[in-house]
Specification:
This protein has three helices and 13 strands. The chain is an alpha+beta fold. It has a single domain, classed as Beta Barrel (Porin), CATH 2.40.160. Strand 4 and strand 5 form a beta hairpin. The chain is elongated and about 70 Å long.
């Protein structure tokens, strides 16, 4: 059973967001630098909440200097998708909790930032599919009765480096509240796929298992190009 990926469209949209929303900040940074300098008595800690492609999260920041901010995060993405694909009813469950550690560099001593760091956490992607008509697995067509129900999972590396650009006014203005927006990407490595059949007349058949194994290889090859996950977040911080 082939699964089409929304990867190319996602990346085109992500690139458009990056170009139209984040990069203009860099162009304006020189003009803003004088107004956004950190006040000498600025408090160095902040807490905040974020929302974005990695779900909901909380973060803690420490302003090491007016150019370097250390940041820690806890994010959680829980998402369920169901529908019908090529004659199969399916449900996909995604659970992706993660902690992160980052260094935000403010080269112009204002809100514009370049961020780098790492997310730690193993996302879980589980698939359940019930064929309603004949499906093709590993190059061979099977009936719903032969297949039964399909159960699958996608596993990725639990360590995902991150790079990004953004704007964070938390420490660049003499105010308690600051808005933060970041766009970037994580690099998860090549995903690994598992696929099993239950309740079908061929679920335990050796030849059918060979076809399932071939389908797994085909799926891994198909999604290997999408080991980069776009990250876009917006949040609100409180400095103290």
């Amino acid at each position: 059973m082939a699964i089409s990926s929304p990867g190319p469209m996602m990346f085109r949209r992500f690139s458009h967001i990056l170009a139209t929303a984040v990069l203009p900040i860099a162009a304006a940074s020189g003009a803003l630098a004088q107004d956004d300098e950190v006040a000498p008595d600025a408090d160095r800690f902040a807490v905040g909440a974020v929302v974005g492609t990695r779900g909901l999260g909380i973060e803690v920041q420490y302003a090491w200097s007016d150019q370097i901010v250390l940041r820690g995060t806890v994010d959680s993405l829980v998402w369920q998708v169901d529908g019908n694909y090529r004659g199969s009813d399916y449900v996909v469950d995604i659970a992706a909790p993660a902690v992160g550690a980052f260094v935000d560099l403010h080269p112009f001593r204002n809100g514009f930032l370049v961020s780098g760091g790492v997310y730690l956490g193993e996302p879980e992607v589980d698939l359940r599919a019930i064929p309603r008509r004949a499906v093709r697995l590993g190059g061979t067509t099977f009936t719903p009765a032969q297949v039964g129900q399909l159960y699958g999972s996608v596993m990725v590396n639990g360590t995902a480096p991150f790079v990004g650009l953004g704007y964070d006014a938390t420490f660049s203005r003499n105010a308690r509240w600051g808005v933060r927006a970041v766009a970037g990407a994580t690099f998860t490595g090549t995903p690994r796929v598992r696929l099993t059949s239950r309740g079908g007349t061929l679920s335990s058949n050796r030849a059918f298992q060979v076809r399932l194994a071939r389908e797994v290889k085909d799926l891994e090859a198909e999604i290997s190009a999408y080991s980069v996950f776009p990250v876009a977040q917006i949040g609100l911080n409180y400095r103290f």
